[in-house]
Specification:
One of its GO terms (molecular function) is phosphoric diester hydrolase activity. It comes from Sphingobium amiense. This is Phosphodiesterase. InterPro entries: PLC-like_Pdiesterase_TIM-brl. This protein is of the alpha/beta class. It has one domain (about 1-210): Phosphatidylinositol (PI) phosphodiesterase (TIM Barrel). Helices cover about 30% and strands about 20% of the residues. It has helices at about 20-25, 55-65, 85-95, 105-115, 150-160, 175-185, 200-210; strands at about 1-5, 30-40, 40-45, 55, 75, 100, 120, 135-140, 165, 195-200. Strands 1, 2, 3, 4, 5, 6, 7, 8, 9 and 10 form a ten-stranded mixed beta sheet that branches. The termini are close together.
Length: about 210
């Protein structure tokens, strides 16, 4: 199992997407899922409509480059039309271990045209896409079901040969241990393709190590 710290490795909710949480994730060697928006002509890190003091995307990349591991960045796109600026900044920084996801389909086509790696989405409401063949992986979510299992997981596993990013249930304020136990039981069938996006990356790492 590989790990994406959801909005950084935060200890209290006010740390989400903060420099503290981002640095902590990199210090522990975790990948990060974080949110990118535009604000007054800048790209910033923010899940909600941003304030003017939100962290610049350039500053975020600078923090990332200050750590040696170059772990995966899962960039949740929260606004349309950022492809050009985002690609320029990533290319200039030499950042290659990243993926973009969660944008609208019309906006996603721009990322595909720019040859930026992207995830397609799957859930009980989102099925196969004509974009599957070009995707770097699947972002596998579950809204009304407790978690993605069975046929949903199997379909996502065959949609592309890339990553399977599992949304841990606590991101939707649901219990997560049943999902973790199920995924631990089947992860051997998916080699190193599983990426768990979680609010508890340290706990998850210990949990999945039991079956390793």
């Amino acid at each position: 199992m590989n790990y994406l710290a959801h909005r950084g490795f935060w200890r209290t909710p006010d740390e989400k997407n903060s420099e503290t949480a981002i640095r902590r994730a990199f210090e522990y060697g975790f990948g990060i899922e974080t949110d990118v928006r535009d604000c007054d002509g800048r790209l910033v890190i923010s899940h909600d409509p941003p304030k003017t003091d939100a962290m610049d995307f350039a500053s975020f990349l600078g923090i990332y480059l200050s750590y040696p591991d170059r772990t995966k960045l899962a960039l949740n796109v929260k606004a349309d039309g950022m492809q050009g600026a985002m690609k320029t900044m990533l290319d200039q920084a030499g950042v290659t271990n990243y993926v973009v996801f969660d944008m609208s389909v019309p906006d996603l086509l721009g990322y595909r045209k720019a040859a930026m790696p992207f995830y397609v989405r799957r859930s009980e409401f989102e099925g196969p896409s004509p974009l599957d063949a070009d995707a770097a992986g699947v972002w596998l979510d579950s809204f009304e079901r407790p978690f993605a299992d069975g046929a949903l997981l199997a379909e996502a596993g065959t949609a592309t040969s890339g990553d399977i990013a599992l949304v841990s249930p606590e991101l939707h304020r649901r219990p997560h241990l049943e999902a973790w136990a199920y995924w631990r039981g089947v992860e051997k069938d998916y080699a190193e393709r599983f990426w768990l996006c979680t609010d508890f990356p340290d706990e998850a790492q210990a949990f999945f190590a039991i079956g390793g």
